[in-house]
Write a structure and sequence with these properties.
CATH class of the domain at 412-691: Alpha Beta
Radius of gyration: 40 Å
CATH superfamily of the domain at 412-691: DD-peptidase/beta-lactamase superfamily
Helix content: 25-40%
Shape: elongated
InterPro entries: Beta-lactam/transpept-like, Glyco_trans_51, Glycosyltr_51/Transpeptidase, Lysozyme-like_dom_sf, PASTA_dom, PBP_transglycosylase, PCN-bd_Tpept
Strand order of the largest sheet: 14-8-7-19-18-17
Pfam families: PASTA (PF03793), Transgly (PF00912), Transpeptidase (PF00905)
Number of strands: 24
CATH architecture of the domain at 412-691: 3-Layer(aba) Sandwich
Protein name: Penicillin-binding protein
Keywords: Carboxypeptidase, Cell shape, Cell wall biogenesis/degradation, Glycosyltransferase, Hydrolase, Membrane, Multifunctional enzyme, Peptidoglycan synthesis, Protease, Transferase, Transmembrane, Transmembrane helix
Family: In the C-terminal section; belongs to the transpeptidase family. In the N-terminal section; belongs to the glycosyltransferase 51 family.
Number of helices: 28
Strand content: 5-15%
């Protein structure tokens, strides 16, 4: 059967009014006529004289709302999807999914018109016969028993209540039973009917009204109660939902199934009366059960539904807010938010975090972010925490923005990257040889608090034994502290801090991050000239640290880490976003050469053990870091396809030292970046390498391998002290002299650093003090024993004399 014919029949079969005895109602009839007159006058008041300014303003207010009604935007669910298009979060104020007319079943439309407004197709927004009948019935009966409202009027009323009203007073005004409200409603309904087709009005109405259990609109109602789409609703399902519109709070099939069944059958009775050629079908439908789901099907609101994607969801909302789409807009706008989240990478990050860090630890957390490098954007691929995202504190859950806020005690030696980059920018080459004393005192660079350390001096020692000198590449892989404290003294604290900010640690410039008033952390470190900055002892934003890796992997191109690929509005149009522009923050040759210098950490450096444990064997630039007190630790790594970091820290206001395997608070910490942080990162990414380009190190730039021309240290070994000093000063360096045992007194035996150095920095000459007796020629005769003529002894090898460590 053609249901459209049935729909037309609804408008052709009006329901007749019952008569009320005149003896009981005559005295009220005059009142009804007065109300009718008020209605008519109200409709005409903009044209009538005498109302003046007040009536004109009232008319303007009505016209403004009428224009909004015609526009018809209603709160709708915004859906956040991953890179594969799979939804993982729903943001809404009212759980509503708008659907076009063709995606609503005809049975649903027919049921609603039959029970709510059978003359819907014939009137022009107001059913005058029904309106006056309602006034007459309500007045004669002494109570409100009939509404007389058309679907147009109900749409107006619901729109004012659910969309326009923002306060409790406005919501009360939208539903008050007064002639004034009725007049406004009628005028708006008449305007609406002139501007929209009947099908448009009916579709908007079905997309607007509440259906109980947090459901708004027919699509969500169909899913909530039957688990089907609106286009697939059958006769009894449609009749039930049409009946619930009368009172979605009272007519709840889970708390009042009897009342809902009766109301559904009432709707079917109207269909039997108004569409007689389908009467048998409707009678049969009355014999069926409600058939609702065992419990209402709904979508959790907000990022809580995202589970392990919750941190990413929160960051995406913050990012969108900063880009011009507020949280309120997101919860009402019905946007499709296409994110950059790679579900395969995210799942591996989640699993590796769980494998290496107990999620039930309330005092220790590990976070990890993976960013894709690029010249135009740095898409955020994954974001996770060992803590479960949620609101149940008793289950160790949290919604704190751990992966993208300032947390922990610092990334430790990873900050040596910033010192190295600043030194390279000033002329240092990665082939330069750095001095690695066992201890070092950096004067004028703060105070370490170490007993015996002079005032205004930063005293530092190495964690372990190192050779007295090594190349920049070796130093980055094995991470001796003294070499880099000496280096930051030569480079300067300010250029090093600025380099950290340029490469990605942007939060350091924000006012108040120092913990001392409005001063930024960057300014505080510069003002106090803290040499300890190279050892990373300050809180970090883990996402920013991951983006540092992405900047280096992008040949020195910084871009904000973006979680958003595109936002599409409800009409299918892409929404423009305000985003920070990418910046070339260091020379590409510097970034690429530094990436090569960082390539030994997973081969022979501090992360080699974890790399071997997980079977990691691809070219990777990496750096580990641990704070001096073992209260936080990190691992940063990148290839040409992906970049990121993992970070473990004390997730409490009173963090303590952390021990490894398993992670726990302990009296004397032994956590290092090469332990759980490296294992978590490498373990996660090993399983998704096939999703990225074949890994390869970038090309070297000879300028940054050798160092700049004015950074080349003249070869002065073998010269006397005076000549060597003159050559170095002429080359633009300062000179410091240290004597050591040697045969030819006054001869330069070694220099540090060697190869290249920062122009103007101090070069240390190691000059012989003449204390060693030259060894005899290989075939020389035995030396006579002084004072014993004729007696000779074999020549004994010289006794080694310890070489003093230069300071």
């Amino acid at each position: 059967m053609d249901t459209r014919a049935g729909e037309r029949r609804v408008s052709e079969r009006p329901i007749r009014l019952g008569l009320v005895p005149i003896t009981r109602t005559l005295w009220r009839l005059a009142g009804s006529c007065v109300l009718a007159a008020v209605l008519l006058a109200g409709l005409l008041f903009p044209l009538a004289g005498g109302f003046g300014f007040i009536s004109n303003r009232a008319a303007d207010a009505v016209d403004n709302v009428s224009a909004e009604l015609v526009e018809g935007n209603v709160p709708a669910v915004s859906t956040m999807v991953d890179a594969n298009g799979t939804p993982f979060a729903w943001l809404y104020e009212q759980r509503r999914f708008e659907v076009p007319s063709e995606k609503i079943s005809n049975d649903m439309k027919l049921s609603l018109v039959s029970v709510e407004d059978k003359r819907f197709a014939d009137h022009h927004g107001v059913d005058w016969q029904g309106t006056f009948r309602a006034f007459l019935t309500n007045t004669s009966g002494g109570q409100v028993s009939q509404g007389g409202s058309t679907i147009d009027q109900q749409y107006v009323k619901n729109y004012l209540l659910l969309v326009v009203a923002k306060t409790d007073a406005e919501r009360r005004a939208a539903t008050e039973t007064t002639p004034a409200r009725k007049i406004r409603e009628i005028r708006m309904a008449l305007t609406l009917d002139k501007r929209l087709t009947k099908d448009e009005i009916l579709t908007r109405y079905l997309n607007l009204v509440p259906f109980g259990n947090g459901s708004y609109g027919i699509q969500d109602a169909a899913q909530t109660y039957f688990g089907v789409d609106a286009k697939d609703l059958n006769v009894p399902q449609s009749a039930m939902l049409a009946g619930m519109v009368q009172s979605s709070s009272k007519l709840n099939p889970y708390t009042n199934p009897t009342g809902v069944l009766e109301r559904r059958n009432t709707v079917l009775d109207t269909l039997i009366q108004n569409v007689p050629n389908r009467a048998d079908e409707y009678r049969k439908a009355k014999e069926t059960a409600l058939g609702v789901l065992p419990e209402p099907k709904s979508l959790p609101r907000g990022c809580i539904a995202a589970n392990d994607r919750g941190f990413f969801c929160d960051y995406a909302m913050q990012y969108l807010n900063n880009s011009g789409i507020s949280r309120d807009q997101l919860e009402k706008g019905g946007y499709l938010i296409r994110t950059t989240l790679d579900p395969a990478v995210q799942d591996q990050v989640r699993d590796s975090l769980a494998a290496n860090t107990n999620p039930n630890l309330d005092d220790i957390a590990e976070v990890m972010n993976i960013v894709a490098p690029g010249q135009d954007s740095h898409p955020l691929l994954a974001m996770g925490s060992s803590r479960v995202y949620g609101l149940d504190a008793n289950a160790h859950q949290t919604v704190q923005p751990q992966p993208y806020s300032m947390v922990g005690d610092g990334a430790g030696s990873i900050f040596k990257i910033f010192t190295t980059a600043a030194a390279m920018e000033k002329g240092l080459g990665i082939n330069a040889t750095l001095d690695v004393p066992a201890t070092f005192q950096a004067k004028g660079m703060g105070n370490s608090g170490t007993p015996g350390c002079p005032a205004e001096t930063y005293c530092v020692k190495n964690a372990g034994n190192y050779a007295g000198s090594m190349s920049v590449t070796q130093a980055l892989a094995t991470s001796p502290n003294t070499a880099f404290v000496k280096l930051i003294q030569a480079v300067g604290v300010s250029p090093t801090v600025d380099m950290a900010v340029r490469l990605g640690m942007r939060s350091y410039t924000q006012p108040g991050t120092s913990g001392h008033g409005a001063q930024s952390l960057a300014d505080m470190i510069k003002d106090q000239n803290l040499g300890s900055f190279t050892l990373g002892p300050v809180a970090i934003n883990p996402l920013e640290l991951s983006n540092v890796a992405a900047t280096l992997a992008s040949s020195g191109k910084w871009c904000p880490p973006t979680p958003i690929k595109e936002v599409v509005d409800r009409s299918g149009k892409s929404v423009p976003l305000t985003q920070q522009a990418c910046e070339q923050v260091v020379d590409p040759g510097l970034a690429n050469t530094l990436a090569n210098a960082l390539s030994q950490d997973v081969v022979s450096g501090t992360a080699a053990g974890s790399a071997h444990a997980v079977g990691w064997n691809i070219p990777t630039s990496a750096k580990t870091g641990t704070t001096e007190t073992h209260r936080s630790s990190a691992f940063l790594a990148f290839t040409n396809g992906f970049a990121g970091s993992s970070y473990i820290y004390g997730d409490t206001t009173t963090p303590g030292e952390i021990c490894s395997f398993p992670l726990r608070n302990c009296g004397s910490g032994d956590l290092y970046g090469g332990n759980e942080p490296a294992r978590t990162y490498l373990g996660a990414m090993k399983n998704v390498l096939d999703r990225f380009p074949p890994p390869a190190l970038p090309p070297l730039d000879d300028k940054y391998v050798r160092g700049s021309n004015n950074s080349q240290i003249p070869d002065v070994i073998g010269m006397n002290q005076t000549e060597a000093t003159s050559r170095l000063v002429a080359a633009g360096f300062q000179v410091s002299v240290t004597t050591q045992p040697g045969a030819a007194k006054g001869t330069v035996m070694n220099v540090s650093p060697n190869g290249s150095a920062i122009p103007g920095s101090v070069i240390t000459l190691y000059v012989s003090d003449g204390s060693q007796i030259p060894a005899p020629a290989p075939n020389a005769p035995p030396a006579p024993v002084p004072g014993l003529p004729g007696i000779t002894l074999p020549q004994l090898p010289p006794i080694p004399i310890p070489i003093p460590i230069p300071r």
